[in-house]
Structure formats: C-alpha cells, structure tokens
Amino acid sequence: MVVGAGAKVLPRRDHPDVESNSRKPASARASGAGLGSNRDTTRQHNLSTVLTLVHCSAGISRAELTRLTGLNRSTIAALVGELAQLGLVLENEPDQRQQHGRPSIMISPGPGVLALAVNPDLDAVNVALVALGGSIVNPVRFHTVAPPSTAEVVNIVSAIYTGMATSLPENRRVVGVGVAVPGLVDPADGTVIEAPQLGWQEEPLAAQLSAALNLPVTCANDAIVGARAQAAFGAGRDVSDFVYLYGGASGIAGGILSGGQLLQGATGFAGQIGHLLVRTDGANCSCGSAGCLEAEVTREELLRATGVPSGQAEDLESTVLGLFESGNAPEALLEILQRQSRLLAVALRALVHQLNPSVFVLGGFLRILARTMPALLEDAVRVGGARSAREQVAIELAPLGEDPVLVGAAELAFTELLADPARVLGTASPAPIDS
C-alpha cells in the first residue's frame, strides 16, 4: 500500500546515527540501560544526548528525558538549564497529557541556532536557513538558465546569505553550512568528485564556500542527506531498514538505512540507485552506461508531456494529478507514466531482494508515479523471492518539494553542534560574513 506523507514532517525520538533493530519507538528501545551517565566526566556526552533527543522530537518532557536517558531528575534539570542558557532549547508549559503525578515541563528546540542549507541542481540553487528541530526558515529558490558552475553556486549562495544575515536578529547565530550535491562527494574534504549532470569534476566546493562565507562547510550526496532527514524526522523515523529514492532535475539518487545505520560504502559512495540497470537496450546514461534507472525515468519527459516549464517544476505533480484524476490526461502522458512506473518497479524489485528493506520512501517526481500507478509499484515489492524479503514492505511518500534535502543538508552542519554543543557555541560567531 502506498502511504502519502502529510504536510507536516513527523518527528523522531532518536537520531539516524543511533543503531536500532526494530520498528519500536525509540523511547521503547532506549528504556532500561539508559542513554546517559551520571558521572561528571561525561557532561559533554550528556549534553549531546539531551540536545539530540530534543532536536529529533516535536517536544519532549523532562520526565521523558529522565526516562530515556536514565539520568536523575536533578541532572536533567541542570542539563536542560545549560542548554537553555546556550539558546539551544526552550522550556515551555507543562505537558498536560501526563496522566499521573505533577505535569512535567516540556522542552523544545530553540530558534536561536541555525544552519545554512544549500542544494544546487540543474536549473536552480536552493538555499535556506534551518533551525534545530528541522524547521526551515525563509527558503530561497534561485532559478538558473543553465546548470551552474561551482563558482556561480558560491556567488549565488554568498549573495543570498548576505541578505539573510543582515536581517537576522542579534540573538540568532549560524553554526555552519551543509550542502546536498547531486553527485559523488569525497567525505574527507567535501570535494565534488563528479556531478555529471552539472558538469562538475574534482571541484573543491566545500573549501570554496567556506572561504566565501567564513563558516565551516560540509558536503554530501543529496540522496544521502535526504535519507538522513527521513530517518530523523520523516517517513523513515523509527525504521531500521529503509531505502530513500529521490527524483529531481539531475536524475535519481538513493540513500539506504540498514540496521539503523546509513550505508556509506568503502569510500562513501554507496546508494547510487539511479544507476541500477532497468533496461538492457535502454538510453545512454551520464555515467557512460546505458539503460540506467535515471536515464529511463526522468522528470524532463514528464515536463514535456504536460507542457510545464522547467522553471515551474514545483507544479508538475499537481498538474499531472489534475489531468489524471479528471480523465483528461493525454494518451502520451498515460503511456509515459505506465512505462516509467514499470521501470521503477524493476529497480524496487531488485532492491527488495538485495537489501530486504521494510519501507521504500519516494521523493521528488517519483511521488507522481506512486500516486498515479500505485498497483505497479506495490506488485513489484510483493512478487517473487523469499517471503521474508517481501512481507510488510511499504511504499511511503516523502513530503513534496525540496524540504527533505534541505533539512538533511542542515543535519550535516548540525553534526558537531549535537556532539558537543558547549564547545561549538563557544567558537561559533554570529551571521555576518566577509564582504
């Protein structure tokens, strides 16, 4: 059954880097031994644990923090107080849902610490500030007439960020930049090894952006960061094994969570799902092969069939669904939807056998195929193979738009903050950049 995601990105009570082995809520998995320690020497660990729990929830009570971490109430109160002084959390009204005893104070992510999220693509550069908790602030989509070079991306992001920084209140600070790149990225230094659709090769994007913005910059593959966002806040929350596929202007990419861990591969390049072979006599792909998923299933073909300009690609899903549901869809469009869905089904079937996921999360224009041809995709994950590899495999939809990718990019920038909040905020500077 294809399950559509709502407009609100759902919270998760754990973190994608914390291993889990079931679909039980993180709160259930964490009970018992606890996540924290009462020793003074582990203050950094305890601050990190509490902040991460708050970050990955829509709001969590002090009582729940006490239960999840195994720390005593006075220690939790002290840790929350320190995080509040740093501007990382807010203490709110008591949780009135509590059935027994005195209602516990609710803790939520504070709005004062931000990350700059960047996602360059074939026809646009997406930029946004993202607060703790995955809340996107003033997103900007800067359309380009051609695939931007890395120098153009740096100039565009610098100009947008300068405008954002000058309008930020004094009590807001930006701790870093996360970049989601549609290509292969060296995890060691953020060099874009190859982004074929953009024409990039061996581009030191992280170093270039860091020099321009005077902020630390982390780059990663766009689908990897999208999967990270889904694991923390979205359709993959509380799921140990899922596959995230995102279709955009530059192709189809994937992120894989297995045993609670994002698969990186030996050199960080795992998850190139767009290059799965789905048709032996297929179209040439940018990777040099032919018949790859992203060469056969493209957003551009749907744009041409509907007449939606590439600059208005955000309207593609509503346009296709409107035509489809009204019965006015041209025969050519229906043929494209059926053919692309069949080829996507080939990839999903292969992934069921290879990875044994419990959920597929489809984002970008792949949502359209799931919504118009659900039976083709559902049959693909339920037909053939060992029963254990296919039972209870669900297909869910990521939220519409670039939000998961931008939220995932921000998670890159928040990594060090979540690991050691006191140290990072001791060295972080307010938003202004060098002119």
UniProtKB/TrEMBL annotation:
SUPFAM superfamilies, alphabetically? Answer: Actin-like ATPase domain, Winged helix' DNA-binding domain
Q: Which InterPro entries match?
A: ATPase_NBD (IPR043129), ROK (IPR000600), WH-like_DNA-bd_sf (IPR036388), WH_DNA-bd_sf (IPR036390)
Q: By its UniProt entry, which Pfam families does this protein fall under? A: ROK (PF00480)
User: Residue spans with biased composition (Basic and acidic residues)?
Assistant: 11-22
Write out the ranges of the annotated region (Disordered).
1-42
Family classification: Belongs to the ROK (NagC/XylR) family.
UniProt-recorded name of the protein: ROK family protein
